[in-house]
Amino acid sequence: MNNKLVVENRHSSFVIRHLPVETILLFLLTFGVFLRGLAPSVATIFDDSLEFPLVVHRLAIAHPTGYPLYILLGKLFSLLNPANVAFQLNLMSAFFGALAVAMVYRAGVAMLPHPTAARRAGAWLAALMFGLGPVFFSQATLAEVYTLNAFFIAAMLWLALRKRWLALAFLFGLSQTHHRTAILLAPALAVWLISHYLLHRRAGWRQFWRDIPPAKTAIALIAPLLLYLYLPLRGAVGSLDGSYENSWAGFWRHIMGGGYGAAFLLDNPFGNERGFSFYAGLLQNEIGWWGLALAVAGIGGLVWRRQWRALTLTGIAFGTFLAFNLKYTVADIEVFFIPIFLILALWAGVGLGKIFEWLRKPSLQIGVSLFLTGLLLWRGATVDVSRAGDWAVHDYGLDALAQPAPDGTVVGILGEMTLLRYFQEVQGVRPDVRTIAADRDEVRLKTVSDLLGQGEAVYLTRELPGIPAEWSLSAAGSLIRVSAAPLPAPKFDTAVGVAVTPEISLAGYTITRPKSHETPAPVRLMPVWQVVQSPPVDLKVSARLLDAAGNVAAVTDAVPVHFAYPTSRWKAGEIIADGYDLQLPAGATGEFTPLIILYDPANGAAEVGRVTLPPVTIGQ
């Protein structure tokens, strides 16, 4: 394990070493845990983990700062399974997450000179504690940028502790083509260099120039930044939202963040207010009070051993990241705390190492280390941020694409359209469906008006103010069909013809089971309403499934037509298709009775009418 192959150059100081067995084992262990929690496909609609799969597939440009390194690495991973790019990017996050954990271990070992077996055990457990924390674990299971960023942070700290300056310069430059917050390490690295050379008796400026040759260091630092040429080279493809302008000004605006970072540093656009209790809860949830106590003990251990430079390096880095995070007002601030969790883990490793040294007996050290390793792995296997089996967004996207008529047009916000386009482009599902992204209500309303004026079949993904007053609406599966005139009576499987209220009759209904990875699949109850006259009030629908004992087994309450079509806007003579998805408990099968209730939410939820439908048999 201690055999070394050393290749040294007086100027570059590159060192190639056999990785210890424990580093490889730690990588494999955490990679295996991350694989168990990996999302099987797209898992979110409104964040970067949906944007990246489509950007990588197109080799397009991501949101500011462009993330060229991530896109190119993602493309390499996607070649392993081009039909499921999202899963491959999720896999990439797990890979770099495990690599980051292994690198945290290496940095932890390098915190103190002459690492003993006890100190290695402490660094090992601290690295596991970091990797299996809920926030980091959650980022290692879907297509996100934070595990690769954590690898860069840990690797740069390790290189600094090992004084590998040229490799450090290269990795620092490379990190700037990924997540720009890695630049927050710069003050700590600068102080580290100054303390090593200017405050060292045997060192000085002459030694500095010998160890860090300016030309080679500048090349190592700047060369990776050439990856940003990816943006103008792919400028014709552009970004998903069309915001990237392929010009000199547009290029600089994009790679400098497009004003995004400054907005959350100088202002608080979302009104996120966080106090001490929020940050204390975040730290407690990620590493626990015992982890914080170990980190404090580790700081004490560094002071006791007079490891001032290691403490200064990590301490300044901790302070810089903390100051930034306290000022940054983004909604998902917890992921920006990952470098802080990483540094706390390094300190905790020193504290754990001291505890293992007190145990003295090797057999006791091994036993306690194995027990705590098992405990941490168990925590990772049971963590509630696992995305294994999370098919909800995947199933919604495919179901939405299945609804429009041939050559229909779906209008929705960018996240929803990105989901549909992912399936269209990556898997070839319903390429005939046109998708139009419009985030602002007024733009979406005008788009619908223009399309209807052209005779298009138009579908919405969500309710839209102003729509009910102008046009007729009906449910089309999970979508909303918009029509300039009342649509012809839709087909339904079972006729009813029962008056539910004086103004509304139930013409009929259909019960289907949309394709789903859920067990059991949802039950879609689609009533068809016939409007005798316009109802005077806005009623809500409670759609239910009753079990054999008459108990409610599944229920959905909503404004009709996916919250989009209040009953007071219904017009006499309309026939309106409606839809409600009912999710039965896992394992629920047998005979269930559908029940539909209309009630007035403005009048204490007073029931105004109900209809009980014939029982249906539901299987898995």
Describe the structure.
By secondary structure, the chain is of the alpha+beta class. The protein has three domains: 21-36 and 93-226 and 281-382, no CATH class; 391-485, D-Maltodextrin-Binding Protein, domain 2; 492-620, Immunoglobulin-like (Sandwich). Helices cover 48% and strands 14% of the residues. The protein has 23 helices and 15 strands. The protein has helices spanning 21-36, 48-58, 68-78, 85-109, 117-131, 134-139, 146-162, 165-175, 186-197, 205-211, 214-222, 230-233, 248-255, 260-266, 276-304, 308-327, 338-359, 362-382, 392-402, 414-426, 441-453, 467-470, 560-563, and strands at 409-412, 434-437, 458-460, 472-476, 479-483, 494-499, 504-512, 523-531, 540-546, 552-558, 575-577, 580-582, 590-600, 606-612, 616-618. The strands form three sheets. Strands 2-1-3-5-4 form a five-stranded mixed β-sheet, with helices on both faces. Helix 2 crosses helix 3 (68-78), helix 4 packs across helix 17 (338-359) and helix 19 (392-402) packs across helix 20 (414-426). It starts with 20 loop residues before the first helix and ends with a strand. The model is unreliable at 1-18 (pLDDT under 50).
